[in-house]
Amino acid sequence: MEHAFNYSILILIFPAIMFLVLGLGGKYMKPVLAGTLGTISLTVMTILSYVTGYQYFFEVGKGSDGAYQAITVFNFEWLRFTENLHIDLGMYLDPISVMMLIVITTVSLMVHIYSLGYMEGEKGFQRYYAFLSLFSFSMLGLVVATNIFQMYIFWELVGVSSFLLISFYYMKPSAVAAAKKAFIVTRFADFFFLVGILLLSYFTGTFDFAQLTAGNAAICISSTAGVSFLGMSVLSWAMLLIFMGGAGKSAMMPFHIWLPDAMEGPTPASALIHAATMVVAGVFLVARLFPVYHFGAPEILTVIAWVGTITALFAAIVACTQTDIKRVLAFSTISQIAFMLTSLGVSHFEGHEGLGYMAGMFHLFTHAFFKALLFLCAGAIIHAVHSNEMGDMGGLAKKLPITAITFGLAWLAISGIWPLSGFFSKDEILAAAFEHNMAIYIILSITAGLTAFYMTRLFLRIFFYENKHYHHEPHEAGPVMTIPLMILAVFTVLAGFVPFGKLVTADHIPYEAHINMQIAITSVVVSLIGIGIGFKLYYKKNDLPDRIAESISTFYKWALNKFYWDELWLFVTRSIIFKRISAPIARFDRKFVDGFMDSLAYVTQAASNSIKNFQSGYIQQYALAYLLGALILLVGFCGWLISFICK
User: Fold this and answer.
1) Which of 301, 475, 530, 622 is least surrounded by Cβ atoms within 10 Å, i.e. has the fewest?
2) In this structure, are residues 103 and 276 in contact, taking their beta carbons and an 8 Å threshold?
3) What count of other Cβ atoms lies within 10 Å of the Cβ of residue 65?
4) What is the pLDDT of residues 351-376, one digit of tens each?
5) pTM for the complete prediction?
């Protein structure tokens, strides 16, 4: 069966080649040529991804038992450690990887097209497209990895790619600082991911996903049976450490601090990072290893559910206070990714019991389109008014009609309004939470209301509120930027009607998903309340928002300052890690380790100085030494001979 998908390897080859071509030869090309080549490459990849998706889901992917089969297109050994433990490189297709191929290439293609207009005239245009190709290659390699170590390799490539894109404007200190922050925070979390991988592979003897998840994760459970540490099984520790890596990449608390600052990169790159690549990697990781979590470490799923729930509420509260439109969307992304992880955390495995798994993947699918649309609309707005601040905007509905309509569709979708895509996926998440844990359901429902409120606030502050006087009359962007908005708007409207339960499930067996009308009506009412409050406060300029902020000034200040998480991290790193841990280690290194090595060098040098005259190069000195040596030997021999004769 795998031979039917041999062509799919081109999905990985094209962006890799394009990265090399644009990275090495881009400076010799005109910008329009570099952008065109990158866009054509993504177009071919997108077509191949859709062909792969159609062929997998509707032709050859389903086995005789009615379940979708995992297909290894190719796999070859790269590094061997033991007879059983080795690192392979390959391409693995199953429902979630095929779904991700479609999501990644679609959003990336829209970003490539949009960037032709948005980045026009920017210094480093060719370099930007090279980085986009590297980013696409990294994420595609991650989702089709056949084993967890291959995933880790591409996981790190995604981190490098994000660093390059966030620091694209490297002449701006803020961009450099944001890139370093993202890189350091995610590397810190990735250390735990690596330890978890090594721990898991040590006991199971394999990195391979097919073996790790086969038979309800039987190899993981049997190989770690009876082994525990601090009252928790070694398998639970391994899966917790692996999740910490995913939490870092997906910006879950307490690793969320890097994502809002990542807005320093170009806005189209932000759309790619937030919608289809870096931040959903953690969700995909948990989904890929879901059988191991469910059967081998169910308590870690509970941890994941609560981390996601708390993060979703926290990010939504902070988003209500931010004034930079990209930061509002950044905290919105954190909140929505947390919804997905919570959904996985409250899921079971078989059939309708696995509703949370399906819902989490469904929300990943729909969110990719409407969040990409929101960011690209934000780019069009910034492009028109030359500012990120809401205070510099207002009354843009008539000046940017296409942007206003498409942004409005994305606003209603993320708010969970029927019949847009966000309604269907969010409703399934709430239904899964309702069946599993009432407290989580209530918190997520409140968060959904807050989402509707802050997105209404964002929409109205930009397009209504007050008519601003602009120094340069804002106007709609050209077709190269508006066409991707319209295409993503179509996906935003229609993606919710995809029968996702028949395509992506935890046990790969399709089932019919049904809307829980009680939960659906409740969630829509909550969203409408949030939208209604937003209209009351922000449809027309008034002093009510300021009065409310003053009445809860302390809480508002904390939310505006993101509850001082950045300051807490700075205190921990500078005052505790650097001063209390790193500084003493550095002193020990300088005084004892370096001191010992310096002493060895001193002794060696002194000995060398004392004997170096033996290698002076003077023939007379060598002859004298030879003569003295011969005389010593002769005297010694004579002494021995006399003693021998006397005996």
Assistant:
1) 475
2) yes
3) 8
4) 778 889 999 999 999 999 999 999 99
5) 0.88
